[in-house]
Amino acid sequence: MYFNKNHETIMRIDSNSMQIPFEAINHIDTSHLTHKPQVKNGQTIKDLYSIGSNELPVGVSGITIDNMRQCATIKTSAKILGTNYLEGINKNTYNQFIDSINQLGIVELDTNKVFEQGIFHNIDTTNNVDMSSLYDLDKDWTNILGYLEVAKLNNKFDVDPYQTKYNQGIVYKGNQKTDKNRLIMYRKYLDLKKADNKHFLKSINNPIAFLNSTKNILRVEGNHTSHRAIKTRMKIETNRIGDVLTNGTNYNPYMLDKITQPHRQNQLLMVFNDYNPDEHQIQDVIQLEGIKNIIRMANYCEHTLKQFVKMYTTDSMFRWWWYGGKKSVTPFRPLIDELKKKDSNKDPQINQVIEYIRKSMINDKVA
After folding, report:
1. For a tag on the chain, would you pick the N or C end, based on fewer CB atoms within 10 A?
2. Is the pTM of the predicted complex or chain greater than 0.85?
């Protein structure tokens, strides 16, 4: 596989859930939280204080204080970082991340102790791939989506492309019954323009410039929804916050290799690379590829192919199908030498879109 586990790719986290022990919290104010005790047989079995996303600012979706377990669960996303949203929660933005939580006035976290003692229950890892050197996403999305669709070779994954005016992307979803295997790629610009991101854009300085900077960004996200998934995929011993942010390996390039299996020859990609959908009709592609397949089956033997064509044509039709001369017919003879030469010098087929995304993620390294 192309992905080298030794690459020091930066861990960028978006949506996540953390558990922080009381030992790493300097102060807790529950005055604005809802008390939700659970009593059974006259005994308190749960003593919870919680607050939901409707009462919290952008980037924080919930805080729960558990007095029985002596810990707090905090659910956030990288939107808490404001204009640094695309940077994600990483070792370089960690201090800003903790400061932003503390500014809520609900918990006062000890930055160092949270780093050492807090754990992640689940995380989404992200990469922002700037496609502008290859494509204009507004103009070329249909072509890009085609490359993303034909890239999947692993039968353990299903592909779900979506293409509407305000929602364009693709989901690779594993049908395995163990840990969730899912990789998403989508246009970040369109995602940020959705109504549910209106409050986020209002919360940052110069939202127009920020939004425009994402026009050619293809967002890649992986979901890691268990302790086991975090540790095994990131190649770390624990799911402690500090371990994930400093020692974790970004799994997204590896997941992409798992889905696309770049060591295998992709026959459909070979066809896709040869025929631009803007220049070829489906019937032309089917006819030409059918003729190429027959030529290859005959091992490029002109005599065999000539006899084959004669069997299925009249004398006048044979001239068109063998030498050409009729616009609607693709002739055999000019293709034989051309195809033989091309096949003998054939380089491994590369999906230029997938390869560009893969390299971009691998080169997304710690500064």
Report:
1. C
2. no
